[in-house]
């Protein structure tokens, strides 16, 4: 599995564990909802800055999203 797919699966799993919609999560992360959708489907290759934004609402280290 490539890193973008792994990131997307981890983001989706954590988001669903919190019970957040993509829109709720996007608001918390400060990014657009369609970008979250693309990330979850592995169709985006986000920058390290975006990976950090994705991690903050989950209170995890950015690297944990890539494991």
UniProtKB/TrEMBL annotation:
Keywords carried by this UniProt record: DNA-binding
CDD domains hit by this protein: HTH_XRE
InterPro entries recorded: Cro/C1-type_HTH, Lambda_DNA-bd_dom_sf, TransReg_Diox_bact_type
GO CC annotation: cytosol
GO molecular function list: DNA binding; DNA-binding transcription factor activity
PROSITE patterns named in the record: HTH_CROC1 (PS50943)
Superkingdom of source: Bacteria
Domain HTH cro/C1-type, chain residue ranges per copy: 11-65
Keyword DNA-binding among UniProt keywords: yes
Name under which the protein is recorded: XRE family transcriptional regulator
Species classification: Bacteria, Pseudomonadati, Pseudomonadota, Alphaproteobacteria, Sphingomonadales
């Amino acid at each position: 599995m490539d890193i973008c797919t792994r990131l997307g699966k981890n983001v989706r799993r954590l988001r669903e564990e919190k019970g957040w919609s993509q829109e709720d999560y996007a608001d918390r992360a400060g990014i657009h909802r369609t970008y979250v959708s693309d990330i979850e489907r592995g169709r985006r290759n986000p920058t390290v800055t975006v990976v950090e934004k994705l991690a903050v609402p989950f209170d995890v280290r950015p690297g944990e999203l890539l494991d």
